[in-house]
Automatic annotation (TrEMBL):
The keyword Oxidoreductase does not apply. Residues 1-18 form the signal peptide. Residues 26-50 are annotated as: Disordered. This is NAD(P)H-dependent oxidoreductase. Residues 55-214 form the Flavodoxin-like domain. The lineage of its organism: Bacteria, Pseudomonadati, Bacteroidota, Bacteroidia, Bacteroidales.
Length: 344
């Protein structure tokens, strides 16, 4: 774990936070958190009503936050999923992206919608359309503006459920925008908003929301217990591991599948990588003396460390799992390793 150069790093971090603000899907919003407003007009509904519906999940995501929420909804409901993409991809440079987002929002207010390359011929096969997007400057992300504007007639009579991710601002403005863009669609009156402070509870929040609006699989049956087993593939070899039943372990599982480079650290004492954002460690017991095969988080830095050798007790290490059997041998080499990690 890279524990040196602490003071320069902290100084750099302070200046970075002051300059860039939030690092989520969204540009920084100067306004305080808004309270989602409950619509009181005719084109709203309190729930999906009939379980066993056919679902389509549409989403826009500049980074991966909204995409992760969309994928969880799609997987939970066993529906279809489609990313709404701008005709011209957004710049990697954050400031350039902010300038473009502002310009596009101003153009939309003048009735000029930026082109998107995603289209749907018909929504007839679906009972409910889930529409997800990041909040940009308090508004719905511009590609979803354009998509809904272009497909308003096709969405007439359809039930639409909104979900969004945000650094700190609320969802109510974007709900009003969706209602104006699709006046003949029926909006489910309870949207879902996940801010940067609640993304670590994504799974539980999404499941509770779907339950509250009455969405479910065609044959829900007995709820399945989430498997805590994972596969780690390096080259042509796959090893298995068991993840701990704690907040950090569940957050780890919610990010899968992942493809990361495990950096060799301290003469193959451990293999490390830095998840972004860091896994939630709130309420998780700290402190362990790792043995070969233990999967841990070093709390001060947020990096995951898979130990290839024993290490003395550290109060800052959090154990989140363990590689099964002798599988650690596959990682015990003096080089960085590219791996794919997925749930079993």
């Amino acid at each position: 774990m890279k524990r040196f150069m602490l003071i320069p790093f902290l100084l750099f971090a302070c200046f970075s936070i002051a300059a860039c603000g939030d690092s989520e899907d969204v540009p920084p919003i100067p306004n305080p958190m808004e309270t989602p407003q409950q619509p009181d007009d005719d084109n709203s509904d309190t729930s999906v009503s009939d379980r066993g519906g056919r679902y389509l999940v549409l989403y826009v995501s500049r980074t991966s936050n909204t995409e992760r929420v969309a994928q969880l909804i799609q997987k939970t409901l066993d529906g279809d999923i489609l990313e709404v993409e701008p005709e011209t991809p957004y710049e990697d440079n954050y400031n350039a992206m902010l300038e473009r987002a502002q310009a596009e929002l101003e153009a939309i207010r003048r009735g000029d919608y930026p082109p998107v390359k995603t289209s749907v011929e018909s929504f007839d096969d679906y009972d409910v359309i889930f529409v997800g997007y990041p909040i940009w400057y308090g508004s719905m992300a511009t590609p979803m503006h354009s998509f809904l504007h272009a497909h308003a007639a096709k969405l007439a009579g359809k039930r639409v459920a909104l979900f969004a991710t945000s650094g700190s601002s609320g969802i109510s403005t974007s709900v009003d925008e969706a209602r104006a863009l699709c006046p003949d669609a029926t909006l489910i009156s309870q949207p879902l908003l996940l801010t940067s402070s609640s993304l670590s509870q994504m799974e539980s929040r999404v499941w509770a929301w779907l339950e509250s609006i009455g969405a479910g699989r065609e044959e829900p049956g007995t709820p399945e217990t989430t498997s805590m087993k994972i596969d780690i593939t390096a080259g042509d070899r796959t090893i298995t591991a068991t993840i701990e039943e704690n907040a950090a372990g569940r957050d780890f599982l919610s990010r899968l599948p992942l493809e990361v480079t495990l950096e060799d650290y301290n003469n193959t004492t451990e293999k490390i990588f830095y998840p972004s954002p860091a896994f939630s460690v709130e309420g998780v017991t700290r402190g362990c003396a790792p043995a070969p095969g233990d999967i841990t988080i070093y709390a001060p830095w947020g990096n995951v460390a898979i130990f290839c050798k024993s290490w003395p007790y550290s109060k800052e290490l959090i154990k989140i799992g363990r590689i099964d059997g002798n599988g650690i041998e596959a990682l015990n080499v003096r080089e960085d390793i590219r791996v794919k990690i997925k749930k079993q």
